[in-house]
Write a structure and sequence with these properties.
It is built from 14 helices and 15 strands. The protein has 413 residues and is of the alpha+beta class. The chain folds into 2 domains: 97 residues, Phosphorylase Kinase, domain 1; 231 residues, Orthogonal Bundle (Transferase(Phosphotransferase), domain 1). A hairpin with a 5-residue loop joins strand 13 and strand 14. Helix 6 packs antiparallel against helix 9. The radius of gyration is 22 Å and the shape is globular.
Length: 413
């Protein structure tokens, strides 16, 4: 295993200064992980992030899943994708280059934690983005500080990253949610996972939002009480974290912080599986911290930005009032210019499907993502009897809890 890791690192070094697709020159290695490696690349069109994923026999590609979801979502707070391509040994995704992650910014901060105003500004930025993702029938399932990053050129804009574990949680046509099932393993990161996710239960919108609550707590305190717990196995560690979260007294955890943060976590933990969250209420909590509690303004003066950056971003926001509406029709554009493909399996949004007429634009995109990317079950709607049974089923009862093998393609519904 050590030899394999060393070989990967050597490969990463050798890739520097190489040019790919006659356009992208790799100039700097940005990091690596279980997914593979990521580099900064230069091209005549600017700077990009170049992400490699080593192909694994009989394993689904998280990078392909990520690129498909990001192309489908395309909107404010979602990094743009230039290209996804499958080579001999690697899957490659070229995407918008971003700045530092919230985790990186936290580690660089003097106090090793963020101010209440910055937490509130983060909430005001991120909750509408999550709402947009959820409205497009997708849940992220791995909310954590590492998966949020600021813009490369605009440190006041926050983006959500790493959609490798993202999944469609409901049908885009019927809006019927996936059945409540029980998984054998956790999907996501234990430190920030919701209580129900740690129990192995099927995730929904509530789980993304609860995870975001633990992110807020971590960023404002600097740590969480279940960090560093020792255990002999991963399963034992997860069980200890679950027990700690179940018995968590939120008021005690955030006793010196704004009450609105306590209200946020408590609200998210009380949401039902299929319940639609009140995003406006949650955004209002963070606005109340700034305007009501701190007697301040929503001016994008995060802890890591200077006044010039904040004023410049504020000017952009004022010139475009649609920035925070996150209306579906304004968030999807030019999808027909993007292609995911390789020589064997070309998935293109420029093919004959784009020639269909007499369809509402948004409804059409939902159909494309269902047919091409999300692997629709063609017989489900024809079976009316089964549909009625599913609709009336009590998914929370033990009788309907089923084990489903971990690792099943995230996007199959």
């Amino acid at each position: 295993m050590e030899i394999k890791r060393n070989n990967d690192k050597i490969l990463g070094t050798h890739l520097i200064n190489q040019t790919f697709f006659n356009k992208y020159k790799l100039v700097k290695k940005l990091g690596e992980g279980s997914f593979g490696m990521i580099f900064q690349a230069e091209s005549p069109d600017g700077n990009f992030a170049f992400k490699f994923e080593k192909k694994r026999p009989n394993k689904r590609s998280l990078l392909k899943n990520e690129s498909q979801v990001m192309i489908y979502l395309k909107g404010k707070g979602i990094p743009s994708i230039e290209l996804y391509k499958e080579e001999d040994n690697y899957n490659i995704m070229i995407m918008q280059l971003l700045g530092k992650s919230l985790e990186g910014l936290l580690k660089e901060s003097t106090e090793k934690k963020f101010s209440a105003k910055t937490i509130a500004l983060i909430g005001i930025e991120l909750i509408p983005i999550l709402k947009f993702i959820h409205d497009k029938h997708i849940i992220h399932r791995d909310i954590k500080p590492d998966n949020f990053a600021i813009g490369y050129d605009d440190p006041c804009q926050i983006y959500i990253l790493d959609f490798g574990l993202a999944k469609k949680y409901r049908s885009s046509k019927t809006l019927k949610q996936n059945p409540m099932v029980k998984h054998s393993k956790l999907t996501g990161t234990a430190r920030y996972a919701s209580v129900n996710a740690l129990k192995g239960l099927e995730q929904s919108r509530r789980d993304d939002l609860e995870s975001l609550g633990y992110v807020f707590a971590y960023l404002i305190i600097g740590s969480l009480p279940w960090q560093g717990m020792k255990a002999k196995t991963k399963e034992e560690k997860y069980a200890k974290i679950l027990s700690k979260k179940i018995n968590l007294v939120i008021d005690a955890l955030l006793k010196n912080e704004p009450q609105e943060l306590i209200d946020y976590i408590r609200y998210c933990r009380n949401l039902k599986y299929e319940e639609e969250p009140n995003y406006s209420y949650l955004i209002g909590l963070f606005k109340a911290i700034i305007i009501g509690r701190l007697k301040d303004k929503i001016d994008y003066k995060f802890d890591w930005v200077n006044i010039n950056d904040a004023e410049s971003h504020m000017k952009i926001v004022n010139e475009s009032m649609d920035n925070y509406n996150l209306d579906n029709t304004s968030m999807i554009n030019n999808m027909n210019s993007l292609t995911i493909g390789d020589s064997k399996n070309n998935i293109s949004l420029t093919d004959s499907n784009m020639k269909k007429t007499n369809k509402d634009k948004m409804s059409y995109y939902d159909e494309v993502i269902d047919e091409i990317i999300l692997t629709k079950e063609s017989n489900r709607e024809k079976d009316k009897e089964k549909e009625n049974m599913d609709r009336n089923a009590d998914y929370n009862s033990k009788e309907n809890m089923k084990e489903r093998k971990h690792g099943q393609c995230c996007l199959i519904i």
